[in-house]
Amino acid sequence: MKFLSRFYIDGFILSIIAVAVVASVFPASGGGQTVLDWATKIAIALLFLLYGARLHPREALEGLRHWRLHSVVLASTYLLFPLIGLALRVLAPTVLTDELYTGVLYMCLVPSTVQSSIAFTSIARGNVAGAVVSASFSNLIGVFVTPLLVILLMNTTGEATIDASSIVDIVLQLLLPFVIGQLIRPWVTGWLRRYAEPTKLVDRGSILLVVYSAFSAGMNEHAWTGLSAWRVLALVAVCCAILAIVLGVTAVAGCALGFSRPDRIVILFCGSKKSLATGLPMASVLFAGQPVGLIVLPLMVFHQIQLIVCAALAQRFARRQDPALEGSAPGR
Question: Could you tell me the sign of the dihedral formed by the alpha carbons of 203, 209, 211, 213, in that order?
Fold first, then answer.
């Protein structure tokens, strides 16, 4: 485990891989699949209720104080990434299968991470308070923005079909629980603080349930039959290229816009992440009836690559100042 920690591969990532393998060998079927589908829907609703209960509305208002910083992070998450995803359409179906490209485009539309973005910013001696607000704000609006982007971009490009029933599912499984969580927040905040560890089990358990459901459905639909090893390697290369482009653009943008070094670190780390915790549950709702297992695969691959690369960068920044983050005026 010490060896794995050097590459920022934690037990949860290993759990996701293990669940995916188990689902591929022992997929649910028949009545078990029906029970699994309902359990997954309930778990997703509970997950987003907890998201709503944890996020204080004040965070959105505080974000306005440093609007330039947070605007750059949001532009990277919801503008730069989607543009890259749309540009990569030329890779399908020659380099990536249509399903894998759908997954790559979807990955580009999900919110930024919270925990890892803040952790890496702290390690790199960046503006931790700014990272907290930027990452939280990204997830807060992502509950609304990501489904909207999926409907606008993936429907118009023919990569996914979001019909009226899907929109109802989005409202019932994502938005409504989130709003309820916001409404009940004053009464449950203390309870959530006292029982933080048990609620983490809900977080992680729901994600593992989504992974099992997605990969189980993929096996039942024979979605993996035509996926060769070289396609997987191509996917890894594409994810690496996307991360490299975004890291480069965010580093240059932070310097060009005259941000201080701590703020440039926030832009670099918060603007380059994609959330597995939010993206997986959303995918099971947005792409119901489609090969979800293949669609979420790019997000799973990108998530691990971003952790490894950003962990190395954060440690490097902690040891010395990086020239890529220097050379601009220190002010916002």
Answer: negative
| Torsion on CA atoms 92, 94, 96, 98, rounded to nearest 10 | 50
- pLDDT for 5: 52
In angstroms, how far is CA 14 from the centroid of its own chain?
17
Q: Is the pLDDT higher at 102 or at 318?
A: 102
Instruction: State the Cα–Cα distance between residues 157 and 152, nearest whole angstrom.
Output: 9
Task: Please name which of 140, 74, 137, 151 lies closest in space to residue 105, comparing C-alpha atoms.
Answer: 151
Nearest to 273 by CA among 32, 74, 42: 74
12-34 core/surface letters (b: 16 or more CB in 10 A; e: else): ebeebeebbeebeeebbeeeeee
The 10s digit of each residue's pLDDT in 280-303 is 888 888 887 777 878 888 998 898
pTM above 0.90, yes or no: no
Amino acid identity, residue 48?
F
Determine whether 2 is exposed, middle or buried from the number of CB atoms within 10 Å of its CB (0-12, 13-18, 19+).
exposed
* Helices first, then strands: H and E counts in the chain: 17, 0
Give the containing element (helix H, strand E) for 152: none
E strand residue ranges, the chain:
none
CA distance 135 to 138: 5
